[in-house]
Amino acid sequence: MFLVEKEMHDRQPPPTTERDGWDRFGFLPSHASCQFKGGAIEPVPNYDDVWKWVQHHLYFENLLAQPSSSFEPGILFPPLSWRQQHDPRTDDLVSVVPGSEGPALLHRVPTSHYVRLDDVVAGAEREGSVGFVTNVIGFLYDAPTQFWDWWFDGPVSIGGKSLHPVPLVLQDFVSHAYATWRAWGPEPQQLMISLLNMHGRAPGHRWHWERFSWEYTVTDACYKVADTVCPGRFRRHGKAKGKRPKHGDRIKLMCREFGLPFGAEEDAWVNFAVCLRNELLHEARWSGAQPSTKGSDAAFRAPRFLHKLNQRLIVGLLDYRNGFLASGWLTLSNAHFDKMK
Questions:
Q1: Could you say which DSSP state residue 90 is in?
Q2: For residue 162, what pLDDT is reported?
Q3: Which of 52, 130, 249, 314 could pair covalently with 125 via S-S, beta carbons 3.0-4.6 A apart?
Q4: Tens digit of pLDDT for each residue in 59-97?
Q5: What is the helix (H) or strand (E) element at residue 337, kind and residue range?
Q6: How far is Cα 270 from Cα 302, in angstroms, rounded to an integer?
Q7: In this predicted model, which residue has the larger pLDDT, 271 or 334?
Q8: Helix, strand, coil content of the chain in percent (nearest 5)
Q9: Are residues 119 and 37 in contact, defined by beta-carbon separation less than 8 angstroms?
Q10: Residue-wise burial string across 100-114, b where 16 or more C-beta atoms lie within 10 A, e elsewhere
Q11: Are β-strands 113-117 and 156-158 bridged in parallel, bridged antiparallel, or unpaired?
Q12: Hey, is 1 helix, strand or coil?
């Protein structure tokens, strides 16, 4: 007998209602609404229920953390899934497919906000202007975002290194970033959306070597955008004029051009990070050992430092010249994200 096979999940995010003229996305760990130049975002009516659902299902990397009135960062793991066979005529359950139980390959996070852009039809431009806006707002909260009917394909880290923008800064940054992005050509526009998405997803990878590879992908994509938007500015000079610099020199050049703090300590760390990258990609080794076995303390901290560096490179790419851009990134402490002067 012919049977219909379905994938089942052990949890479903709380539903949210449609709104004419607006699309939906999530999850942002903030109740913020924002009217920026070119559009707006607003929280869904049942945001408090969505917030509670997310906090209930998060894994807190800080073992002392407890859900409270403020959002506690954590990781949202995929739900458990299994496959069932159903009668195609009655939809009655016939059997559960043996051995099909496991983490879902694809899952959704709850919708937290509505978004609209001027002169953009609701549901359109998801891979264009609307996709950029939702991703760049997620960047500020260190939370990868997705549209209500799109999927994530792994653990989702939410709010780990949030920049905690106050409403005035949120409005100013998004307005400036959107105007800057719109002035670019199609290629760097698409690259920027992709690197913002990858930047948000990178912290969801818990093995430090695996997360490092994702973070370095973002770093390299930052250079690609910079080189595309500003031809020649990020190339070598002298006898090798016009050629792309080596990996380490790309990072150093971006830091200097964007005004990031860069001294002997930062220079040595970049050289170390490039060695980690080359060892991992070309030798299948991590800090002198097999990945997922052991490594140095410096290698363990490397993905976090690279994430903080990428935050500043992204701000530099969007030409938002604030104090945060010039703040130290080779540190475990957080910096205040301020309004551009």
A1: T
A2: 93
A3: 130
A4: 987 666 565 567 889 999 999 999 999 999 999 999 999
A5: none
A6: 10
A7: 271
A8: 40, 15, 45
A9: no
A10: eeeebeebbbbbbbb
A11: unpaired
A12: coil
